Amino acid sequence: MNVLITGAGGFLGRLLAEALLARDGGRLVLLDREKPAGFDDDPRVEALAGDIASPGVLAAAVTSDIDTVFHLAAVVSGEAEANFDLGMRVNVEGSRLLLEACRHAGRRPRVVFTSSVAVFGPNAENIDASTAVDPRTSYGMEKAVAELLLKDYTRRGFVDGVVLRLPTISVRPGRPNKAASSFASGIIREPLAGVEAVCPVPPETRLWLLSPRAAVANLVHAAGIDLPHADQGRVINLPGITVTVAEMVAALERIAGAEVAARVRWERDKNIEAIVTSWPAQWDTREALRLGFENDENFDALVRGYLAGSPPAKA
Amino acid sequence: MNVLITGAGGFLGRLLAEALLARDGGRLVLLDREKPAGFDDDPRVEALAGDIASPGVLAAAVTSDIDTVFHLAAVVSGEAEANFDLGMRVNVEGSRLLLEACRHAGRRPRVVFTSSVAVFGPNAENIDASTAVDPRTSYGMEKAVAELLLKDYTRRGFVDGVVLRLPTISVRPGRPNKAASSFASGIIREPLAGVEAVCPVPPETRLWLLSPRAAVANLVHAAGIDLPHADQGRVINLPGITVTVAEMVAALERIAGAEVAARVRWERDKNIEAIVTSWPAQWDTREALRLGFENDENFDALVRGYLAGSPPAKA
User: Fold this and answer.
1) pTM beyond cutoff 0.90
2) In A155, A313, B178, B202, which residue has its Cα 20 to 30 A from A137's Cα atom?
3) Are residue A123 and residue A196 in the same domain, yes or no?
4) Number of domains in chain A
């Protein structure tokens, strides 16, 4: 495989790059606004800096040998809600330019596009392939638009596309970001590091979660999966687990103790609550599991997986 | 009302302009690629020529006094399938630029956007508000994208939008166009004028139709209707009637005689058939009727309505 990853400097992009380098000898082009660091010693890797919505950047990155594209670059939910123009530019126009670059490179690459729970509305339950999108955020609208583009580019034979609708990824290492769901990692990560964390939604709020490990495994799986129909079955609702925020904190207490769990402070933020509670928390995972995509066991496993891969707590 | 109509030189645009001038004393801006003709004597009308996808054209047309916009301009289905770049430019980028112009004019105008049966896939039956879009043509994809944009611009308070999903309009006067559904008027209009018409789909093909009269009445109705929720109920599946092509020709024979109906020649066109049979032919009309939108009685009424408004047959 000769692979391009957009948004390769982000958390998932870096994990994905490492997973691909561990298993394949092809070329790997890593693109992000700032040049993805840490891969200079690997001759298979070309790290590029560029704004995907600027003309020419993607045309230069999608060379004619690229057969697989992971399109992860995006302005996240909270930021797209705060800055409408930026979200439209990156999430819609950037995605369109990527598809155009693939079309004109002429190789019909497999394009794995990460979409989101945010394309759905609050009334959807047991999400399956027939569930109507109903975004209530600009981020969700932009992802839904990019899905439609990808499907039609695939139907026309310009690309060989797959949409993966990702649950909220938890537990992410590192620092908070501008995603409305940032707290879904923060309320576990920060207390484990001895730091107080604010939970901006009520304890009974349900989330739909997937671990970073399973997310990366599913991205890699999507690159190789056989999908016979050009215009059907190209949108896959990934597996995940339904959990309330209260259950998340209870798992933290079971695993790390009451003192750690007490570092979660409950302080509602109406903007974040409005966004997060507009996302459905229960999907029908049967089709994705049948196609070989992975799920996590339960939220305790997500916390233990984070602890196994994260630096020890500083407190 | 001070009104802008895009695509005002088209068949529906002209009918709508005439209907608005008959009932209202406000200003009426008519925009199309070529300057809409025939309105020079009316001081209320400003006719403009311009490409809606060219920067600046819509900003000049959406002046700060415009409170109502009818966005009819579009590249039709057959042409959007044949010329992907043109369809994307007009149907997606043109719609986006219109919404941007409305946003920056600052008046939050009511925007009535004409979408289409083509946003749905062939498996959809009894279409209602919860039916997932599943376009199988580039035209349908582009309309679905513009719907998502309009809904989010409305949610954010940039515009006060309403999407009307129109059935195929029949019987259109005038000449055939590049819509895949052009025959749905042609097989009635041409035989009545003494001319042979080709029907490119099998007799059992079902269509979902609405008369020009009801379409214009519904457009005008949509401009004034009260819609309380910014992010819900903004997409309306208009009423229509389900009819097979065989039933259409039978109606023609009932009304105009066997000799006229015999002018329909059956000659399948696989490209047209693939597009038209991807559209569902049965919708749940209860919600639209509850909101005060109109339907036609049956296909005989559509033919009689055409005859009442059309020049006499030349044969």
Assistant:
1) yes
2) A155
3) no
4) 2
